[in-house]
Each structure stands twice: as structure tokens, then as C-alpha cells.
């Protein structure tokens, strides 16, 4: 006996039950690289240092001689600056946000020019974009909003085909026809790279390798044990 498709009123529950589970993170040991040598190193200040004799700090200006250490410290400085900026930005937004709410009740504006004393100041723009709300909160929101729920919220759905092989698409076309298939599915074609391309890319001819662009490597500092 063929399985029945879910009734219209049960589509939301059906989709929720078919949602893809979150992937578990995996950790593995990574190769350890060490570029340090005992050869003379010229510091940024111009002084020539011998690490085996004077260590890995410049004997003239005390700056680190190791490129890895300099990257580490520069990364830390960037993170410290980002933290300071985030704190100052938060303080400013605490002042601007009430004005945003006030204007929303009269002459609505998303963008505000905030004057500075010794600078031109800054511009604060609020975005009409919000983070996803977990589906588990849907029932509570519906209970709170009642009949007004659909004026503010909707169930956001992002559906992708599990199998995009020629056979699967052919089966859908046979069931739906080309016109309905095009109506319900957005088609975006491109050339993708197969698994392990990060390793296999070195086997490509130079002309082919020019066509691919590997994502920028992520950099993070190592935490002390």
C-alpha cells in the first residue's frame, strides 16, 4: 500500500520531523611545523641577531625574532583592538537604540548620523535582518501573539534535494512535468570541486588550477595547556 502524503495542515510538522540533524565536530592531530634555525636573523630595526647566542628576542629593540611569534602577537593585538572596539560600539548603541525606537513611532528611520566632538562622528544603520528563531520557540510565540502571529512571523523553510542525480531529477520531472518542476525548484548551475581537492589540486595542469580558488585559510592562536 502506497504511503499517503501528509495533509496540508500537517506539512509543518512533517518538515520539522525531516530536518537534518546537526553535524558533530571532529578533532584530529595536526602536523607540527618548526621553521626556527640557528642562522643570523635581521630584525625590523636592522640589528643582526644570532638566536643561539642571544635568544629569540632582538638584543637591540627586544622585539620577537620568530615570524610565528610576531604573527601570534599581531593576532593578539588585533583581537584586543576588536574587543575594545566592540565595547565602545556597544556603549554607543545603548545611546542610539532608544532614539531608533522613538523614531519608529513617528518618522521612522533606520540610519542615524551621530556627531563627534573632534571627528566627523559615525553613522549607525539598523538592519532589517534578524537571526533565525529556533523552531522550538514557535508554539510559545504563537501563544503570545495569538491572531497577530502571522503579521510578524512565519515558518522559514530551506529545503534542498538529498539526491540531485540525473535519475532523481528525471523521476521528479516524470511526476511533476517540466513546467511544475521549474515552478517549485530554483536551478543554479556551476562547476564544483570534488572531495579532497585541497590535496588533489596539486595534480592539476597549471591552466586548470587557475580556474579554482581555495578559501582563505583560517588563522587562530593556539591556547596554552
Question: Would you mind describing this structure in some detail?
Answer:
This protein is mostly helical and about 220 residues long. The protein is about 40% helix and about 5% strand. The chain has nine helices and four strands; from the N terminus they run αββααββαααααα. The protein has a two-stranded antiparallel sheet with strand order 1-2. A hairpin with a 7-residue loop joins β3 (about 110-115) and β4.
Nutshell version of this structure?
The chain is mainly alpha-helical and 225 residues long. Helices cover 39% and strands 5% of the residues.
Top keywords for this entry?
225 residues; mainly alpha; two-stranded antiparallel sheet; two-stranded antiparallel ribbon; 9 helices
Mean pLDDT: 87
Radius of gyration: 29 Å
Oligomeric nature of the chains: single chain
Low-pLDDT stretches are 1-8
Distance between the termini: 60 Å
- Helical/strand content category: mainly alpha
How are the SSEs placed, and which strands pair?
Elements: H1 11-17, E1 41-42, E2 48-49, H2 51-54, H3 67-104, E3 111-114, E4 122-125, H4 138-145, H5 149-152, H6 166-176, H7 178-184, H8 197-200, H9 206-209
Antiparallel strand pairs: 1-2, 3-4
Helix pairs in contact: 6-7
